[in-house]
Amino acid sequence: MINRMSSMMRMIFICSLMGAISVPLVSATPVDLSAEWQVDPKYNANEAYCELQNMVGVNSIMAYAIIKDGNIIAEGYGEGRSAAGIYQPWSVTKSIANIIIGLMITNGDVAANDTLATIFPDPNDWINVSDAPAKMTLKLSELMSFTSGLTRGGLIIGYATLREELASLMYEEENRETWIYLRDDHIFSWIIYKVTGMTPRQYALSLDFFTKLGINETEYNWGTFGVEPLKLETTAHSFQTNVRQLAKFGQLYLQGGVAAPGGEQLIAPSWITESTTSQPEEGYPQGYLWYPTSRGYEARGIFGQYISVIPSRNIVIAALRRDCIGSSRGFIDAAHSRLDKLDNGVDGACPESLWDRVVPDWAKVGMSLVTESVFGDDQSSLDYYPSNHHLRSP
């Protein structure tokens, strides 16, 4: 399993596998996700915020938001970034694809045990597809946990036809039930389209899903592939939005699949539990396009993009990082280690860091990159990291 990962995949995944375990769903008291986040009294006036802000520049963080008990308690933005920005979370999109498929599961459109033969019944889609009989037996659950025996394939820009998609995927029977990550494959876009007759975005809009999460059409971009008249939204990467909206996807799962107090059951709780538990058995690094952790579960994207859900603390963290080398887990782990400090209020502005006191603004960008390459995940040096925009109101 491990020998199939590139060095980049190791950086992203192996260093962050923290004992994948089954995580019970802890239902938070639901908040209305269609509304703006309510602001915690300690919003950006707590010790955790002050310390995390000292990482924003040096850890190449574009943006982050922390939701506690359904209220936004901390958020920060790198130079030139804002709450209204639309940013690339890369493979976090896969976890959003899980949510779209969760809508389908809940509505009875598809089942986790459905095979590709059931999902793609047209024989024309299988013409000249290698290992077609074996691929037809693959279950949706196996595809979503990366244990299907598909070892490589997919195209970062997608394929124009389903037949090309299926032909691109290489199958190895001996690796069925072995976790092998497929980074660029958009098979879930085709599954959504063939089952519902709608593209992923069309299906979500048909259920008013984004409206129920308070995400309007100007607050996200969703990449597409294919050629007119059929262009499908991607499900491997490129659902772009901001950290406040990304946090709503995590909050939806945290509060058991309902988007408002007394609201309809958008996603079945059983699907959430199954998706965020190691599949097909304990010890695997992934659920269904979510990553179980010792704290809860995460959506992850290359270079350090995260939605982290911590049910025991009723907390969701969304963080986006620039596409660059260096520590990918540094910031999210620093946030996890400072959760207790969210309740420790501070009076007035955060203490100015040594960086802010002695380094001129023009020198900070270049020095940040140098410092990141030197310190990486070394949190002991946090006091010397740069501090950005100490926001006091959302």
From TrEMBL:
Pfam families on file: Beta-lactamase (PF00144)
Keyword Signal: yes
Keyword Lipid metabolism: no
InterPro entries, alphabetized: Beta-lactam-related (IPR001466), Beta-lactam/transpept-like (IPR012338), Diverse_Enzym_Activities (IPR050789)
Signal sequence residues: 1-28
UniProt KW keywords: Signal
Highest taxon of source: Eukaryota
Beta-lactamase-related domain sequence ranges: 62-320
The name this protein goes by in its record: Beta-lactamase
Species in which this protein is naturally found: Seminavis robusta
